[in-house]
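Notes from the 1:1 (GR / supervisor)

We went over the backlog. Supervisor wanted to see one worked example end to end before approving the batch request, so GR pasted a single chain during the call. The sequence is below; no edits were made to it. Supervisor asked that the structure be written out right there so they could see what the output format looks like.
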Amino acid sequence: MPGAKDATEMKGAGRVILKGGRVVDPVAGIDEVRDVLIEEGVIRRVERSISPEKGDVVRNCDGLIVAPGFIDMHVHLREPGREDKETIETGGRAAAAGGFTAVACMPNTDPVNDDQSVTEFIVAQARRRSPVKVYPIGAITKGLKGEELSEVGELVRVGCVGLSDDGVPVASAFVMRKALEYARMFDIPVINHAQDLSLSNGGVMHEGFHSTVLGLKGISAAAEEVMIYRDILLAEMTGSRLHVPHISTARAVDLVRAAKARGVNVTCEATPHHFTLTDEAVCGYDTSTKMNPPLRPEEDRDAIIAGIADGTIDAVASDHAPHCTEEKEVEYDIAPFGVVGLETSVALGLDRLVAADHIDLKRFVEIYSTAPARILNVPGGSLSPGVAADVSIFSTTLETRVDPARFRSKGRNTPFVGWALKGAAMMTIVNGAIVHERETAAG
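Structure output shown during the call:
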């Protein structure tokens, strides 16, 4: 695939054929070598062989996987308000380079996305600047204060696909109940940051052996589990859709598994850093290992992997949280929480889940594409004829090395610097246009 670039060279092409790739589409039940015909930005045919016509653009996908476009359902684009950290444009480019055709952006911007004017700005800016689709998540409460509900109907009307006070848990069970009841009227998920702040109590890493050795204040697993248990009970009572973000403990996975078994309308996501790292990674005081929820012990990491494999955990999301370098180059206690992930998520999933034989490619496509589309009720998740041509093409064999200097994101705060990973995003297509193409392993 020559020419590493951010581009849109398929725009205006009459017909495009993706030739000879292994098409993996869980919705259509396809997992075999096929050709894909794109015309006027739409998937037209997926067949064993499609003969090119004069003027067709043909892309050789031999040895690559062709999948419905990946959707990262939990990112922070920082715009409006903190464009020094990230913008909708730079975050969109990072998403395209990472293999994502769409992202859902959290509302903790400045001003907060609790008002239709902010949502309209994000939608308009994405249309002008982002190479990938951007779906706003609206705030549950005004100003993320946990007190008064946002105007949910107005937020949904102008484009919000879910509600969250991400980073700030809704402490009041009454407010959370009302949010679930309002969200049910619009069939959107409520995504509550699962943390009881009275239990986390200013901690900066997982409470356990390593926090004791390092002398850092810990965040107990119970701080997450108590909130998830409460929210599951409220979702069960209201019949509403609850989505648990960045699940990180074994007991939390068990809570969701049990809730699903009794019919609660609950879904959840895990991050690549939580299925890859443990709290031992904090031992060097690298602030790129500081995230919320924190890295947990090995038994929790293994439970996350098992939950992904058995379907308890529905999706993988990066929780992409870029910060300025100077903000992270401080003492561990005072550094902000968060790591970037848009440009490493797919490779980490391929390396640590697929190559390690925890899941197959069908399940991989489900957690990166089909499930996020289903949870957010947005287009995507399949390559069925007639749908928008959002396509993620990737390699399971190409070894890449994580180099933050090459990130399209403004953020460099990754704990995976220098890691060699087996697997890479190769081409990202949105509405039939190539928005990123990888040239080499370093591209």
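Supervisor's comment: Residues 1-12 have pLDDT under 50 and may be disordered.
Batch request approved.
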